[in-house]
Amino acid sequence: MPKAKYQLEDFLAIVNEDCKEFVSTVHEKMLGGKYKPKIQTMKSTGLQLSYAEPKVKGVMGIILIFFMRENKLTIRIYTKNHKKYPHVLNGLPQTIVTQIENAPDCVKFSDPEKCWKGCVGYDFNIQGKQYQKCYVACFQLIVDTESNPYFLELIEHEVDARRMT
């Protein structure tokens, strides 16, 4: 049986009204940056929308993923160039910083053999505090109208940094 082909409208149908405009805005920015969208069903999260860099395979090419968790829209931003824009991280509101603090620590920093081979982990500072967080879960954040401008800023800086490399 062939896999179902999903469109942005299918994903937007499961998103809360107050987040639809944000998802559409991000979608347009990602398409403008030549990122390839992919909408698929996942056992753990249901319908998921991700964007990958053209010609980059695997997790390292993915820049962000939208999915639903506990009926809340969640975004996972892979900020592999976060050290190029520390001012953005330092400007995050406490609600986002708290979510980052609650993300699991990366085991790579304590025992490199315990993490997956391609793990890069995150080692960074926010407002003078050091974090060593899991690459997958660090920037996995609940989307809400107050946080959306900060997410857009993170995404824009990451897109720009990736374009420069």
Q: Concise description?
A:
The chain is of the alpha+beta class. The protein has five helices and seven strands. The protein has helices spanning about 10, 15-30, 85-90, 95-100, 150-165, and strands spanning about 35-40, 45-50, 60-70, 70-75, 120-125, 130-135, 140.
For this entry, give a set of tags:
two-stranded antiparallel ribbon; single chain; globular; alpha+beta; 165 residues; five-stranded antiparallel β-sheet; 7 strands
Characterization of this structure:
This protein has 165 residues and is α+β, with helices and mostly antiparallel strands. 32% of the residues lie in helices and 25% in strands. It has helices at 8-12, 17-32, 86-90, 94-102, 148-164; strands spanning 36-42, 46-52, 62-69, 72-77, 122-126, 129-133, 140-142. Strands 1-2-3-4-7 form a 5-stranded antiparallel sheet. Strands 5-6 form a two-stranded antiparallel ribbon. The model has no long low-confidence stretch (mean pLDDT 91).
Task: Tell me the total number of β-strands.
Answer: 7
- Spatial ordering of strands, largest sheet: 1-2-3-4-7
Radius of gyration: 16 Å
Cα shape: globular
Structural category is: alpha+beta
Average predicted confidence as pLDDT: 91
Largest sheet: 5 strands, antiparallel
Classify the helix fraction into a percent range. Answer: 25-40%
Q: Helix and strand string, N-terminal first?
A: HHEEEEHHEEEH
Measured by DSSP, the beta-strand proportion falls in 15-25%
- Helix count equals 5
Terminal residue distance: 40 Å
List segments where confidence is low: pLDDT < 50 over at least 5 consecutive residues: none
